[in-house]
Every structure is written in structure tokens, then in C-alpha cells.
């Protein structure tokens, strides 16, 4: 626990340093860019740092360092320990960029208890008395903020790679590129399913929802950070295979829990409105599972209401009851547990350091049982 806490502190400090450097460059361009710095800092100041933790424990599962973790000490300044902190920070910045873009696509109003970035830019437009369409301004400005964070994540990741030998750096960079490609594809499939579902055979909808989970979230939230950390440490093929066998099912469990929270989560804890995924029309595994067992009338009503941004609290509660009564909620909870158990079984069989296996098993419980 102390080791993970130390890692989170170091990653947060590394992110702050990157933002400070970026702030100076933005200030040299124009004072009008101050909002970019403010909104980026606010977004990156929160979060659970799961991707950083998986990256670090992927590294430790191979490197097996003992003793206190201090990559900034004099004797470790140019080691892979410093590289892992920097790479973990880059993953968190990439995640922030994805959240900005995701909130635009989902038309979300809030993120982590604050207005989403596009809503903040929209409010800035209105409060400042500027001309033109404030919603369009908010969307366009947030798109650029997300792009800027993507650029920053690349810059920070390059600093991590500079600490590695060139051959290893190329391998790690390729994994980072693969992650970016897959999450982008997954995001597209997510929005595609929201509009294309009426043209898809009912029998295929669950399979398609599961594919979205894998590429939108499971790989980039858990599997890719693990592999990047392990590759920085020089992992063998068998170690990478073991981490994949652990990371993918756990990533699926992670996103299934996220889907449950998107419908049933407490807004005071999640920082998002109650039933947000219902208003956004998310065609999740939860929804696809419910549709398989609902009678025709109830299924038609679910399809009619899902995606209505004006759903009131009573309608949200009715949809929640429909999903529960269909048996989908229990089925998804069982699926989460099966995926976690599969991940842990793979972890036990993998040729990884015992201390890292213990920490990864603990993380598996944390991400699959979280309330936010």
C-alpha cells in the first residue's frame, strides 16, 4: 500500500511538472489560453490513477525491485524506475484527453463533480458576453483541449522512452501506439452502436456490446498499462502472456462495473447525474442482456426511452426497475465475478514476482467493486 501511495504521489508531481512547462509555453502565446491550463489541471488533479498503478505493478511484476521506491534518488535518476513514473504520468494525461473527448461525444454535463470541459468553455462564453453559438464554442474549445492533452501525453511518454535503450524504447512505443489505436476504434464503435442498433439483429447485439467493452475500455484501462510497464522492465514472452491473460478479463470486469455505475451509481459518489448512461443511450452489455429476456412490449419501451436526454427521475427509476426485473443486473454481477476470478487464476499461473501478484490481485478487487 505504501509503495502504491508513493507511486501516485510521484506521478501526480510529474504531471504537475508537465503542466507547469506547458503553462509557460501557453502564456508566451496569449493570456487568452489560461483556461486551457486551468481546466487541464482541474481534470488531472482528480481520479484514482488506476492506469498509473497498473503500469507500475506491471513493471514490478517483472523488475521485482526490493526496498523503498524512490526513482528520483541520486543512484536511480537514470534508471527504468524513473522511466516507469514518467510513462505512468503519460498514461494519466492520455486518459484525461480521452475523458474530454468522451464527454463531448456523450453530451455529458459533469465530470468528477465539476462541469465537463465543454460545459465550462460554454459557460465562459456566456459569462464573457462573447458573440456566436456558445454551445459550438464550448465543443470546439474542448476538442482542442483534448488534442492538447494528447500532445502532452506524447511528449511525456517520449521522455520516458529517452531513459531506455533504443530497442526497448521502440517496443514500448509500439504498445503505446496500439493502445491509442484500439481505444479510438472502441470509442467509434461505442457511438456507432448508439445509432446503428435498430439495423442490427437482436442476436448480435450482446456480442457487439462486448466488443465495445474490450476495445473502448478493457485494453486501455488495464491490459495496455500492464504491458507497457512490463515492457519497460524487459518482460519475457511468457510474462507478457500472463499479464494479458490477467489484464483483459479484469479490464472487462472494470468496464462492466462502470456500466453498472452509469445506471445505478450514486451521483454524490460518481460525480455524474443519476442514470447518465440511460440518457446518453449507451448500448451496454447490461442493456443488451436485458433486451434478450424482456417481453416485446417492455423491450420496445426500453428502446423508446433509452437515449432521451430529457428523461426525468421517475423514468430513470422505471428503466432501472426494468433492467433489474429482467435479470440483467444479476447476470452482469455474475459476469463481473467470473471475469475477476478468471483474471486471478491467470495471475496465479503467471511467472511474475510474488509481491506484484499480491498487489495486482488486490487491485482486481478494488476496480471491480468500486462505487465511483
UniProtKB/TrEMBL annotation:
InterPro entries with a match to the protein in the record: Isoprenoid_synthase_dom_sf, Polyprenyl_synt, Polyprenyl_synt_CS
Source domain of life: Bacteria
MF terms in GO: (2E,6E)-farnesyl diphosphate synthase activity; dimethylallyltranstransferase activity; geranylgeranyl diphosphate synthase activity
Cofactor: Mg(2+)
Stored PROSITE patterns: POLYPRENYL_SYNTHASE_1 (PS00723), POLYPRENYL_SYNTHASE_2 (PS00444)
Pfam family, one: polyprenyl_synt
Keywords: Magnesium, Metal-binding, Transferase
Database matches in CDD domains: Trans_IPPS_HT
Gene3D superfamilies xref list: Farnesyl Diphosphate Synthase (1.10.600.10)
Keyword Plastid (UniProt): no
Enzyme Commission (EC) number: 2.5.1.1, 2.5.1.10, 2.5.1.29
Record SUPFAM superfamilies: Terpenoid synthases
UniProt similarity note: Belongs to the FPP/GGPP synthase family.
Protein name: Geranylgeranyl diphosphate synthase type I
Species of the source: Curtobacterium salicis
Amino acid at each position: 500500500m505504501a509503495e502504491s501511495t508513493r507511486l501516485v504521489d510521484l506521478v501526480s508531481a510529474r504531471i504537475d511538472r508537465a503542466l507547469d512547462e506547458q503553462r509557460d509555453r501557453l502564456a508566451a502565446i496569449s493570456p487568452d489560453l489560461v483556461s486551457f491550463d486551468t481546466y487541464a489541471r482541474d481534470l488531472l488533479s482528480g481520479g484514482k490513477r488506476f492506469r498509473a498503478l497498473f503500469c507500475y505493478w506491471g513493471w514490478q511484476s517483472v523488475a521485482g525491485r526490493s526496498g523503498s521506491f524512490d526513482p528520483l534518488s541520486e543512484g536511480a535518476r537514470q534508471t527504468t524506475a524513473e522511466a516507469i513514473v514518467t510513462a505512468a504520468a503519460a498514461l494519466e494525461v492520455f486518459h484525461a484527453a480521452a475523458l474530454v473527448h468522451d464527454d463531448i461525444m456523450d453530451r455529458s454535463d459533469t465530470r468528477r463533480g465539476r462541469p465537463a470541459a465543454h460545459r465550462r468553455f460554454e459557460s465562459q462564453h456566456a459569462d464573457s458576453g462573447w458573440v456566436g453559438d456558445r454551445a459550438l464554442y464550448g465543443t470546439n474549445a474542448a476538442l482542442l483541449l483534448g488534442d492538447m492533452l494528447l500532445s502532452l501525453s506524447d511528449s511525456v511518454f517520449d521522455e520516458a522512452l529517452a531513459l531506455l535503450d533504443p530497442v526497448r524504447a521502440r517496443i514500448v512505443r509500439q504498445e503505446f501506439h496500439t493502445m491509442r489505436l484500439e481505444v479510438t476504434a472502441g470509442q467509434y464503435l461505442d457511438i456507432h452502436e448508439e445509432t446503428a442498433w435498430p439495423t442490427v439483429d437482436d442476436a448480435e447485439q450482446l456480442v457487439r456490446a462486448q466488443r465495445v467493452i474490450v476495445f473502448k475500455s478493457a485494453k486501455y484501462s488495464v491490459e495496455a498499462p500492464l504491458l507497457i510497464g512490463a515492457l519497460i522492465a524487459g518482460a519475457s514472452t511468457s510474462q507478457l502472456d500472463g499479464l494479458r491473460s490477467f489484464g483483459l478479463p479484469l479490464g472487462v470486469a472494470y468496464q462492466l462495473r462502470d456500466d453498472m455505475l452509469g445506471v445505478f451509481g450514486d451521483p454524490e459518489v460518481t460525480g455524474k447525474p443519476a442514470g447518465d448512461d440511460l440518457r446518453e443511450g449507451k448500448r451496454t452489455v447490461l442493456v443488451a442482456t436485458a433486451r434478450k429476456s424482456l417481453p416485446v412490449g417492455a423491450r420496445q419501451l426500453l428502446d423508446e426511452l433509452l437515449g432521451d436526454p430529457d428523461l426525468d427521475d421517475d423514468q430513470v427509476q422505471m428503466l432501472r426497475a426494468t433492467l433489474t426485473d429482467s435479470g440483467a443486473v444479476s447476470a452482469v454481477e455474475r459476469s463481473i465475478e467470473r471475469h475477476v476470478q478468471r483474471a486471478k487464476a491467470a495471475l496465479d499461473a503467471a511467472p511474475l514476482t510474488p509481491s506484484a501478484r499480491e498487489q495486482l490481485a488486490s487491485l482486481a478487487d478494488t476496480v471491480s467493486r468500486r462505487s465511483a
